[in-house]
Amino acid sequence: MTTAPSRQAHSASAASSTDPLLLVDVDHVRFYVGNAKQAAFFYAHCFGFQIDEVADLTTGSREEASYLLTQGNIRFLLTTGLGADHPASREVMTYGDGVKDVAFTVFDATKAFERAVKNGAAPAQEPRTVSDDRGSITTASIKTYGRVVHTFVSRTGEYDLVNIKKGGVFSPGFKKLDKISINEYNRKHPCGLKYVDHLVGNVEEGKMNHWVAFYENVLEFTMFKHFDDKDISTEYSALMSKVMASGNNLIKMPINEPAEGKKKSQIQEYLDWHNNTPGVQHLALRTDDELHSIAALRSRGVDFLTLPDTYYDIVWDRVNTMLTKHGHTPVREDHEAIKKLGILVDADDEGYLLQLFTKPLQDRPTLFFEIICRRGSQSFGKGNFKALFEALEIEQERRGNL
Q1: Does the domain spanning 194-399 belong to CATH 3.10.180.10?
Q2: β-strand 135-143 against 279-287: which pairing, if any?
Q3: Average pLDDT of the segment spanning 86-106
Q4: Per residue in 135-171, pLDDT tens?
Q5: pTM of the model
Q6: What does the DSSP 8-state code read for residue 287?
Q7: Count H helices, E strands: the chain?
Q8: Nearest to 313 by CA among 387, 376, 373, 374
């Protein structure tokens, strides 16, 4: 969803703070989960996250428990309701575990909220500020597709983004967690995940353009890429996708809708198991070393989609021909290691990328992760769409959902 942290810092410092909707960073992604404590250990063990901070009964949080997971510039908040009437409790019962909030750091959360509402957004939470002697955090939220909201976050004092990136306390009401053995293990055996590259939303058939217009009008995004059912299809299923990007191109959010096919697409399967409600399908997490990250994640038990060996019979000619055509050097990573790890490769006029997709992260076939490494390419693996869809369809058929 974002570019490299160094570019983020440069862009944020160079940009004018007078634009209320200048998005500085992905502040955090909040998941609603059935048991935050257990989910925290799943993501720590399987994906190498630090279980960094907690806000729960022991810190005075009487209605919810939240665990902050960190890795590189990634911040996940896992939130569980402590009562039946808490929104997280109701949503988990309806949708299962999944992404509730994609929060953006801005210079002034109140002004960003007011501008978005003026542009047509429906409010989800009016501006509010929490503070203590260390500083303050102001948050305000708007509704977007389905269950998802966007929260604008502005920070002062020790809670500013610079300190958060250095490991400072996330917010008033949170406390640091020490002496957790999985944290020490992860520090010694890093998985190399750096930040959120992009985040993909699934919406109902016929609604993609509606939400494209929402991001254009409300958040003042522009269209970065467009893929139709000719680009993303197999013999059985298809989808259409438009990639929206913030004005400074730091935040990228593809929006998918199902397209007509002989059988059910992955998008429709998601909707079927998500109470026919749009939501976040996957998070793409960036790494600088795809082979290291995938090997580390596989060693921890992460399940990835499996591609047929025939994929590698043709991929190198396609990819290296494209790179040579545009004056780029061929793929530098070891080809046999890529095949052994099951990694996908694609190229465009700017360079190449390496990517691989996990299977669903919970029993419902909804949320999953993508692990991606970019060597110049800023696309999304168009050349892999057919192979990826066929791998997904194999899994759908195993689940009885194709």
Answers
A1: yes
A2: unpaired
A3: 98
A4: 999 999 999 999 999 999 999 999 999 999 999 999 9
A5: 0.91
A6: E
A7: 12, 17
A8: 387
